[in-house]
User: What shape does this take?
Amino acid sequence: MLSVIFDMETGDPDDVMTLCVLATHPRVDLRAVTVFPGGRDQVGIVKHVLNLLGRSGVPVGAGTPKKNAPHVSGFHYKWLGHIDPADADGPAAEVMVKALKYEASTLLTGAALTNVHQAFKLDRTAFVQKWWTCQGGFAGDNVVPPEHRLPKFTGRITCPTYNLGGDRTAAETLINCGLFSQIRFVSKNVCHGIIYDRTMHDRIPWDAHPGLDLLKQGMETYFKDHSDGKALHDVIAAALAINPQAAKWSEGELFYKKGEWGFNPSEDWFAQSAPSPHHITVALDVPKFEKTLTGQ
Assistant: This one.
């Protein structure tokens, strides 16, 4: 079993769909969920989903929103119905640190890294030798072979990336802290190239596990307004945290330059005295991804 701490947001549908997958996946022990920025409306959604899936005992931590404004997109209520706001079980940093203390736990992040940074400042020893899968980062033409490049990114070496750019200080601190056993970035070159459409929807079976069924129900709602489907960025990241063999990876170093992020593969990286803990997606094996979602 893979013990997972999931740090998420609720602006885009795919974070809550990722929560669905993690909550009942047969190969995952969901140890905690932390929410960015941490509004009570967000906590209500998260706790509702956990209750639906029989995981009400999973602790939910919340960050501290800077603004008293809605943080949940309208889609969630179309999908799940009316949900009252709720209180978190504690501050995100405290909930995360406690869960990370569990042996061999994995951190999965799908939001700006503010909550993770606060946990790091609270107790950096909790991060020692942990695995971190981060939805974010960019692999450009210096990393991705021509056959795997997306036309929208052709010619680019760097690109803005939302989750890392949402709190750059936090991102740079965590990426360069040297405490993680390994960091895997699930980058835009993969996430933007895989669309969950009707064809994929039909390939993924019902009744594999309850959380996947709830995701499929959510996509049935989504298709009513978006017939072309959706890129499920964080769902891909979760699948690759569970089964890294479902993607091709490049090893090297993530870097930041003038508002954008890029990746130097090992042969271009000067600090080669030790193995790099950074890996980034080059391509996704879609059949393996789909099988991983079902629990195979």
Observations:
- The first strand starts at residue 2 and ends at 8.
- The chain has a mean pLDDT of 93.
- Residues 7 and 82 are 23 Å apart (CA to CA).
